[in-house]
Amino acid sequence: MTKVICLGLAVWDQIFTLEHLPSGGGKNFAKSFTEVGGGPAATAAAAAARLGAETALWSRVGEDDVGRRILADLQSYGVDTANVRRFPNRNSGLAVVLIDAAGERMIVTPGDPGLDGDPAWLPLEQVAAADVVLADLRWPQGAKSLLAAARQSGTTSVLDADLTSEPEAIAPLVEAASHVVFSAPALRAFTGQEDARAGLAAARSKTQGIVAVTAGAEGCFWIDGEGNSGHQPAFPVTVVDTLGAGDVFHGAFALALGERQPLAEAMRFATAAAALKCTRPGGRAGTPSRAELEKFLQEN
């Protein structure tokens, strides 16, 4: 079984669905409400586990009821949470998510809950036994340690490069990862380029690794280690909920790399997983099974 280690943010999402996203002050009435686990690395870990990986999450939560719910939800997907550290007298991450009728979302979160960022406790000796590791940007100190350990051991690594409240932390992490997957807004912020291809070229100059960008309805673009460009179009689906789609992409992509799928096939695999997730509500609860994903790939 492919072994995946994910490191980064684990939060609890409170999801409200509305006809339209708010554009100003006033009272808004939700059509429905649900609560699910969230966070980039945590959702990637859950997605990889759902798709058949042996997955562990290295993260931080508070010693509170929200933290207990976060852990229980991850464990329900089969994610190993032994190295999710719980901090007394600290709050776990919480996010309020608003989703409109078109599946677009608005997220409100308090940001860093004040959890200790020192990564000295991480069991980095386990990295060499993993097939692939993944880090998001929400715990830069931990990501730096994980990616350095992966480079030293020759383990494939994926950086989920999304927008961050600590933009100064991103450059050394981009340089350290073997594969960097940007969101379109993060690529623009990192390179100053509006065009995705131009942005990738600029990002590629800052790393020897493979760089990619997920661009929603445009699919994903990448530049490989030899400088060759690629594009995987998005699959045409009826979008219900985009929450967690990028994170599901990252988890599926990491799994595919761990399985040694060729780069273009890994991109197609991950794009299909994200597309199927978008057809279902509930954030990462919409992650497809491996059988569902393989059937979708055969039919498209």
From TrEMBL:
Residues 1-289 form the Carbohydrate kinase PfkB domain. Coiled coil: none annotated. GO terms for biological process: phosphate-containing compound metabolic process. Pfam families: PfkB. It comes from the Bacteria. One of its GO terms (cellular component) is cytosol. PROSITE patterns: PFKB_KINASES_2 (PS00584). Keywords: Kinase, Transferase. SUPFAM superfamilies: Ribokinase-like (SSF53613). Transmembrane segments: none annotated. One of its GO terms (molecular function) is kinase activity. Belongs to the carbohydrate kinase PfkB family. This is Ribokinase. It comes from Denitrobaculum tricleocarpae.
